[in-house]
Amino acid sequence: MHYVCFHYEFEHDAFDVDEECSAGGCPSATIATGRGIVIGTARALAIESASDAPWANPTVHEYLEAFARWLEDSDGYYINQGRVPPGSGWEVVNDGLRAATTYE
Predict the structure, then answer these.
(1) Burial (Cβ within 10 Å: 0-12, 13-18, ≥19) of residue 80
(2) What is the pLDDT of residues 55-98, one digit of tens each?
(3) Which of 5-9, 27-31, 65-69 is least confident?
(4) Distance (Å, whole) CA 83 – CA 21
(5) Nearest-CA neighbor of 68 among 99, 30, 36?
(6) Could you tell me the sign of the dihedral formed by the alpha carbons of 66, 72, 76, 81, in that order?
(7) DSSP-based three-state secondary structure for 18
(8) How far apart (Å, rounded) are the C-alpha atoms in residues 29 and 49?
(9) Inter-residue contact 52 to 59 (CB < 8 Å)
(10) Whole-angstrom Cα distance, residue 37 to residue 97?
(11) Which pTM was predicted?
C-alpha cells in the first residue's frame, strides 16, 4: 500500500484531511502550514539581508549556490539531527532557506 493511502486510512485518525495530524510526515502538512511558514522565513531573511546580517553567503549568487548545495545534502542534515527527512517539501525548503545563510 502506498504510504499516503496507508497514512490516511490508519494514522490520520479523526483529523480533517486538510489538517496536519500528529503523525510524523503527515502529507497534510504541506496543505496546512508549509507555504505560509516558507513565506514568513523568506520575508525575515530579506529583512536580515537588508540590515547587512553577517552571512557566510552574502551575495545572491553565493546564497543560491549554498541553497542548492544544502538541498543536495539535506538528507544528511536530517540524519545528523536524528530526524527522518520531512515528507513536506515546504519544510525542506524552509530549512534550506535558513541554512543557506551559513552553509559552505
Answers:
(1) exposed
(2) 999 999 999 999 999 999 999 999 999 988 887 788 899 999 99
(3) 27-31
(4) 18
(5) 99
(6) positive
(7) coil
(8) 28
(9) no
(10) 11
(11) 0.71
